[in-house]
Amino acid sequence: MDLRRKRLLELGCGPGHNAAHLATRYGAHVTGVDLVGLQVRRARSHYGRLNNLTFVAGHALHYLQASAERFDAIYSVFGAIGLVAPELLLPAIAQHLKPGCTLAFSVPHPQRGGRRPSTDDRPSRDYVTLHDRTRLPVARWEFDAERWEKHLGRAGLWLASAQEFHDARHGLWPTTLLITAHKL
Ligand SMILES: C[S@@+](CC[C@H](N)C(=O)[O-])C[C@H]1O[C@@H](n2cnc3c(N)ncnc32)[C@H](O)[C@@H]1O
């Protein structure tokens, strides 16, 4: 896909490195949203001089609800997708994608370290590690590809691929699930 001048949205952009890569290397116009003000300040201080990059502080769902913009692609790299109720977030994402356009997201694999994926649509308790190494409890939706496909379909998105990635340092279990879907 030629990303020049395409409008992209990253949900949970953190310090903005992915967004900056897509803006500088591929000429895309990228908006990054992150819940944590400190992350957005870091992103702006690193990359604020680039005029095809915008960073916004806020909850991914609230940003989508407040915006009328349509994007050519929306993505999340271990970001908001998986940390916000999919039955709310996926339809909001679908509304902001142009027809035929792509949603791509990575999440920690539901079977990492020998865990079991959810057997229902509810989240389980997990932790995220902050910069100062404190661990913050979060709700995480730990779906396998089939359950993501079901939720994507309900939102008007068609699952195009689900790939698992392994890291030899973490034994035989997959560590990452990468999903791509298209707006119908
Ligand atoms: C593991 S970091 C990944 C950051 C970035 N995507 C990267 O790859 O460098 C997850 C980020 O998602 C953000 N996040 C979590 N829930 C969010 C939400 N509901 N809305 C927006 N951002 C969220 C966190 O603040 C954090 O910066």
Automatic annotation (TrEMBL):
It comes from the Bacteria. Keywords: Methyltransferase, S-adenosyl-L-methionine, Transferase. One of its GO terms (biological process) is methylation. The keyword Transferase applies. One of its GO terms (molecular function) is methyltransferase activity. The keyword Methyltransferase applies. InterPro entries: Methyltransf_25, SAM-dependent_MTases_sf. SUPFAM superfamilies: S-adenosyl-L-methionine-dependent methyltransferases. Pfam families: Methyltransf_25. Residues 9-100 form the Methyltransferase domain. PANTHER family: METHYLTRANSFERASE, UBIQUINONE BIOSYNTHESIS O-METHYLTRANSFERASE, MITOCHONDRIAL. This is Methyltransferase domain-containing protein.
